[in-house]
Write a structure and sequence with these properties.
The complex is a heterodimer of chains A (453) and B (113).
Chain A: H1 6-19, H2 27-31, H3 45-72, H4 78-105, E1 108-109, E2 113-114, H5 137-159, H6 165-188, H7 208-226, H8 242-261, H9 269-297, H10 302-316, H11 325-350, H12 358-376, H13 394-425, H14 432-437, H15 439-444
Antiparallel strand pairs in A: 1-2
Helix pairs in contact in A: 1-6, 3-4, 3-5, 3-8, 4-5, 4-6, 5-6, 5-7, 6-7, 6-13, 7-12, 7-13, 8-9, 8-10, 9-10, 9-11, 10-11, 10-12, 11-12, 12-13
Chain B: E1 2-8, H1 13-22, E2 29-35, E3 44-46, E4 49-51, E5 56-65, H2 70-81, E6 89-95, H3 109-112
Antiparallel strand pairs in B: 1-5, 1-6, 2-5, 3-4
The chains are: A mainly alpha (453), B alpha+beta (113).
Chain lengths: 453, 113
């Protein structure tokens, strides 16, 4: 087995990105840099404000996720989780402007991938784009960047407490480039073969397919390649700081308004509807999970409640702008039940160590939510959307199903291959004694908490 | 001179400290500990994974006393900590060889004070 030092691999990866055709980083952007947005033809100040604010909200979800996950691991691994999440903000943001945005949303090549014509944000500028006619194209780039950042961060929940940091960095960079960017193009890119902009007509309002199924299947691949933590399931200590996890869940919920309502890309009725649906689905699922815990274990648990809320928020993501309020309630209700079953029954049955339930919550929630758009989708809610099963269009459910299966297969297989490759070159897993000591000390030479003042 | 280690229920601590003060026993060191006895632990549930509860939270008091205060100290602890239920705790008593007050260098019974 070849072992290459981690930082060298990172440096090589970044250098490779640098070799891509990258004429002038700033040129197009600065050409209208001093012009007020409203002066540029067709740009709405209100819409631009909302999308920028929404982008900031979505950015906050990555630290939120860091605390959500961080509270659930053992004391010795908290920093490793925070570090991994924040490192996604650093690395994927750069990847996004270098090539990620262009691969995802750039001029279409055969419905499969965007070209590199927009790499380094060349040809983007401050005018409107075909994706959002009333905001500067760069605002859309910023908003979408935050989605690209949080998606690989979601996978962290699957391999928490046992992955080498260097391997994590290399994997995440490769995964975003080879899995996230293509799938985003298929679903959201103009000409992508799955979506509604010239594809087979599957809809995904804010990322049920692109974000949650995608990350969830990569999580499953991670679990299979990495194996269980030493001591799983009975000798793993309980979450070391649940209040931190609750804080993280609160930040996630808050940020999700930007995620879903922001995906309307305008300050309009669709955004308002998505906001309401997001909130109600999260609330419903949190309640349902609590009740199920209460019935099965005799007590409603804090961790169960926040897990349910996140499952509901994930599940309503693909449909937030396409379904009405009753649809959101049903989506939330069933996501609470289905994800609860995935985490309690499925995981217990097969004994796989999806450490923080990245697959059980995001993967399963995303699958359910994406199918649910094929059931409750309604053109009365959103003219740009679809009618689902209960509005007389059963075909949409089939289209959604196909999109789900294609994404599941692609994400799972490519993630599996990437994990194997990174494992071969770098080694994915820390040494046994490093796992025992904890990743904070062994990967970062730091401790999250001191015992003495 | 005797040295007492008492393991008690956390919620009985204030009561025990009050009673010790009333009997003019001021010197005491307290810490949070986990441990177990016949009572075993409380099972906890995290995302539906039931953790076998093996250890329980307790409070540990350490007290140095002169011989004539031993009975009063034990009485205070028992009176404050006893609820009559499993898990009320234990008192362990040791002979103590020496005691020194660091500030003055005094040794023996006078140093306990």
């Amino acid at each position: 087995m070849i072992k290459v030092s981690g930082y060298r691999m990172v440096a090589c990866g970044l250098a490779l990105l640098g070799w891509l055709p990258v004429p002038g980083l700033a040129g197009e952007v600065s050409s209208v840099g001093t012009t007020p947005a409203a002066v540029v033809a067709g740009i709405s100040g209100a819409d631009t404000v909302w999308v920028l604010l929404a982008a900031a909200l979505v950015m906050l979800m990555t630290p939120g996720l860091a605390f959500f996950y961080g509270g659930l691991v053992r004391r010795k691994n908290i920093l490793s989780i925070l570090m991994q999440c924040f490192m996604m903000l650093c690395i994927i943001s750069l990847q996004w402007v270098f090539c990620g945005y262009s691969l995802s949303f750039g001029p279409d090549i055969s419905g499969v991938i965007g070209s590199l014509d927009w790499s380094c944000l060349k040809n983007i500028g401050m005018g409107a784009s075909e994706y959002a006619p009333t905001i500067p194209h760069t605002a859309f780039v910023i908003f979408q960047m935050m989605f690209a950042v949080i998606t690989p961060a979601l996978i962290i929940g699957a391999f928490a407490e046992r992955m080498r940091f260097s391997a994590f960095v290399v994997f995440s960079l490769l995964w975003t480039t080879l899995v996230y960017d293509p799938v985003a193009h298929w679903v959201w890119g103009k000409g992508g073969f799955l979506g509604i902009l010239g594809g087979m007509g599957a809809v995904d309002f804010a990322g049920g397919i692109v974000v949650h199924i995608n990350a969830g299947m990569a999580a499953l691949a991670a679990v299979i390649v990495l194996g269980k933590r030493k001591g799983f399931p009975d000798a793993i200590s309980p979450p070391h700081n649940l209040p931190l996890a609750v804080l993280g869940a609160g930040l996630l919920w808050f940020g999700w308004f930007g995620f879903n309502a922001g995906s309307a890309l305008a300050a309009n009725h669709i955004a308002v509807n998505a906001f309401m649906n997001t909130h109600i689905a999260g609330a419903t699922a949190g309640l349902v999970w609590s009740i199920l815990d209460w019935l099965k274990f005799g007590k409603p648990t804090t961790l169960g409640m926040i897990t349910g809320a996140v499952a509901g928020l994930a599940a309503v993501t693909p449909g937030a702008g396409y379904v009405d309020l009753s649809g959101a309630v049903w989506i939330g209700l069933f996501s609470g039940i289905i994800c609860w079953l995935a985490v309690t029954a499925l995981k217990a049955r097969y004994q796989y160590d999806d450490s923080l339930d990245a697959f059980g919550v995001h993967g399963v929630g995303g699958i359910w939510g994406t199918l649910a758009v094929g059931i409750w989708g309604s053109k009365a809610v959103n003219l740009g959307g679809v009618d689902g099963l209960i509005h007389g269009n059963p075909l949409q459910l089939w289209i959604q199903t196909k999109a789900v299966l294609i994404t599941m297969l692609y994400s799972f297989i490519v993630s599996l291959v990437l994990f194997k490759v990174v494992d071969f070159v770098l080694g994915l897993r820390v040494k046994e004694n490093e796992e025992a000591i904890g990743l904070d000390l062994t990967q970062h030479r730091e401790a999250g908490y001191t015992l003495l003042d | 001179m005797k040295y007492l280690i008492a393991i008690i229920q956390p919620d009985r601590l204030d009561e025990v400290l009050d009673l010790l003060t009333k009997k003019e026993i001021h010197l005491v060191t307290v810490c949070n500990v986990v441990g177990r006895g016949r009572q075993k632990g409380i099972a906890e549930v995290y995302r539906s994974h039931r953790e076998a509860g093996t250890l329980l939270k307790k409070v540990k008091l350490e007290i140095a006393v002169n011989d004539e205060y031993l009975k009063q100290a034990m009485d205070a602890i028992v009176e404050g900590a006893r609820t009559g239920q499993t898990g009320d705790g234990k008192i362990f008593v040791f002979d103590m060889q020496e005691c020194m007050r660091i500030r003055t260098g005094e040794t023996g019974p006078v140093a306990i004070g």
